[in-house]
């Protein structure tokens, strides 16, 4: 029989680039007071418990009872083929979530890799919009998917940190022979990152979309922005590196709330010989203290995990729009359909235009690239 659970549902206005902490299903009696100490994110006997590293975040608990769990586990009495398939997918997704939650950690391992690979396969398969809409409407899936996204974000952070340190260690070992490695000499190391090609493909889509709206010096000249910022760059700033490769004169400003991620990112740029073309800020873009002057940048990227729900993303975008120069292009990574199980979705109806933007383009890949791309332009302040 299914036990009753509390699921921590994220609800915060602050950006949390490349989420480093994780919240989990919390097993507790239903009479327990629904309050959580944010510095003890995991309050159960889960083996995922670890020292608190999260700042003050506003949590709200959403109760999911056994009836809710059965709701998305059990198809209707006379199910259609789509009903049965949708419930089968949810059952498998819940099994993956339970398996991830039961592990002692989310660092790269055969178990973690296998579970996440299967989850990505499920979410990026070519499902019909009807199936995706039906599945996402099932009672109880919102809490499951919100909790799963947190685990996926934590696993992604662990994966990037692991590969960044691995690349740095290899670079240090060869530093005596080549004190300042070039981009070409280190590209092989970067390409060993499991999702390297996905980042390259996503960046190409973003650049192609951006260049349709960037001013060019002539009809034969490809638009080339000089100053770009990436919010939520993490320890392995692959998109920033792709920017530097495509736009040879560009400088990228990397922003992340995690001090360790900023440090590792800076060390990696130094090892690659690209430190002169990057700057960094350890900053919470949703907070009150400002370090980055958004007026300085022609293009600003917002990573998929900056703002774990649509409203949080819109609030961050509104702050940027108030400071950025009108005409500044902002690239927001979102998701569509079942891909929203992996990454939070920016709902364009949630006040994007009121936040100070013109919506220029939305791109939904049907390839292995998981994220959708939303191109926005900062409007003139009236």
Structure, described:
With 382 residues, this protein is of the alpha/beta class. The protein folds into two domains: 5-156, no CATH class; 180-378, 3-Layer(aba) Sandwich (Rossmann fold). Helix content is 39%, strand content 14%. The protein contains ten helices and nine strands. The protein has helices at residues 66-73, 81-102, 110-124, 129-137, 141-173, 183-191, 196-211, 238-246, 259-272, 310-323, and strands at residues 5-10, 59-64, 227-231, 251-256, 278-282, 299-302, 329-334, 357-363, 372-378. The protein has a seven-stranded mixed beta sheet, covered by helices on one side. α10 (310-323) links the parallel β6 (299-302) and β7 (329-334). The protein is globular.
């Amino acid at each position: 029989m299914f036990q009753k659970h509390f699921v921590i549902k994220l609800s915060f206005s602050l950006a949390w680039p490349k989420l480093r902490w994780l919240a989990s299903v919390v097993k507790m009696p239903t009479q327990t007071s629904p309050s959580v100490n944010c510095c003890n994110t995991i309050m159960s006997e889960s083996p995922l418990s670890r020292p608190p590293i999260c700042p003050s975040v506003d949590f709200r608990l959403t109760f999911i009872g056994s009836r809710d769990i059965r709701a998305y586990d059990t198809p209707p009495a006379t199910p259609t083929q789509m009903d049965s398939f949708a419930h089968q997918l949810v059952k498998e997704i819940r099994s993956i979530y339970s398996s991830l939650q039961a592990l002692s950690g989310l660092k790269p391992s055969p178990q973690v890799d296998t579970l996440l690979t299967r989850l990505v396969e499920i979410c990026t398969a070519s499902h019909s919009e009807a199936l995706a809409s039906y599945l996402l409407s099932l009672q109880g899936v919102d809490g499951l998917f919100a909790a799963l996204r947190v685990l996926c974000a934590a696993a992604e952070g662990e994966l990037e940190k692991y590969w960044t340190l691995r690349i740095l260690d290899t670079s240090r070992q060869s530093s005596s022979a080549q004190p300042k490695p070039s981009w070409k000499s280190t590209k092989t190391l970067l390409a060993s990152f499991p999702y390297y090609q996905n980042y390259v493909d996503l960046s190409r889509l973003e650049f192609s979309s951006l260049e349709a709206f960037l001013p060019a010096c002539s009809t034969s000249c490809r638009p080339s922005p000089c100053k770009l910022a990436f919010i939520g760059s993490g320890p392995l700033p692959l998109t920033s590196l792709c920017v530097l490769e495509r736009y040879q004169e560009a400088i990228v400003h990397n922003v992340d709330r995690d001090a360790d991620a900023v440090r590792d990112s800076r060390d990696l740029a130094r090892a690659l010989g690209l430190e002169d073309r990057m700057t960094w800020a350890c900053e919470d873009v949703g907070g009150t203290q400002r370090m980055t002057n958004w007026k300085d940048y022609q293009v600003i990227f917002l990573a998929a995990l900056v703002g774990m729900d649509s409203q949080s993303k819109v609030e961050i975008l509104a702050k940027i729009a108030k400071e950025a120069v009108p005409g500044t292009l902002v690239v927001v990574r979102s998701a569509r359909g079942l891909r929203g199980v992996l990454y939070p979705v920016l709902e364009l109806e949630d006040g994007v235009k009121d936040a100070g933007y013109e919506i220029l383009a939305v791109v939904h890949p049907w390839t292995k690239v998981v994220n959708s791309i939303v191109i926005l332009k900062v409007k003139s302040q009236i």
